[in-house]
């Protein structure tokens, strides 16, 4: 049983954190207000009403966590009805609640939705559209895969491992298996990494979390490869999360990556490692005024200067 993950889910829901929003939002323009902390004090009937009337599926998914934590099985009949709505994401959200409240129908519904690859009408809620009927199916299945990964029960593991063979959903499955600590998935993750190079970083990150040395080796190879910059960026971030000093040479090499976002990620990773041997490379990077095109408004130089100051400050604190 891995229900301890719900404590993390509930914390994310009540802080309205950007990760949770980006996980479920399909359109940045639809980023309405997240669930307020006051939801924790609501009655189950009030929460159920908010669940039914949530403007967007990602908001409803947040409330789903709260309903599961509340543990009120009296809402099961109404939740079961909501698993038959036309909106697939909302259908999956209801199935998630069913499962969380101990109703086996929830898992069965989620697995069925994952296996349904048929094209379907584009959801009007997703205002910009996502490329037509086939992409809508992918979007719905992607949402469902995230929910399955958040369930955290042993019964979900076989389906997640099966999804490692699905080119569209293997990255979600890999991340979930890594977070859940499923060591039985290691060999399947290696196969996935070879089968889908565009998702190799996801498999490698999961392997690293599971303590498999092949994961860090793969991540290091990706960082210095000619794969797309988004893949190199994710691999660099994963090396930072690993906290392994053995990867310091690769991160120093990444300071010369062609893409500014990868260089910024390398600087931040070296900052996190906090090793003074990185200072010469960081001083060179401090002259790089490039502005990364994605995410935070910063420069390579600003990040490098901050890293230098942080490492030097740590060294001073270690002096007798």
Automatic annotation (TrEMBL):
Give the molecular function GO annotations. lyase activity; oxidoreductase activity
Keyword list (alphabetical) reads:
Lyase
Which SUPFAM superfamilies is this protein grouped with? ARM repeat
Q: Where is this region: Disordered?
A: 120-139
InterPro entries this protein is in?
Answer: ARM-like, ARM-type_fold, Armadillo, HEAT_type_2, PBS_lyase_HEAT
Tell me yes or no: is Cytoplasm among this UniProt entry's keywords.
no
The record ties this protein, via SMART domains, to: EZ_HEAT
Query: Does the keyword Oxidoreductase belong to this entry?
Result: no
Cited function: Catalyzes the hydroxylation of the N(6)-(4-aminobutyl)-L-lysine intermediate produced by deoxyhypusine synthase/DHPS on a critical lysine of the eukaryotic translation initiation factor 5A/eIF-5A. This is the second step of the post-translational modification of that lysine into an unusual amino acid residue named hypusine. Hypusination is unique to mature eIF-5A factor and is essential for its function.
Q: What is the name of the protein in this document? A: PBS lyase HEAT-like repeat protein
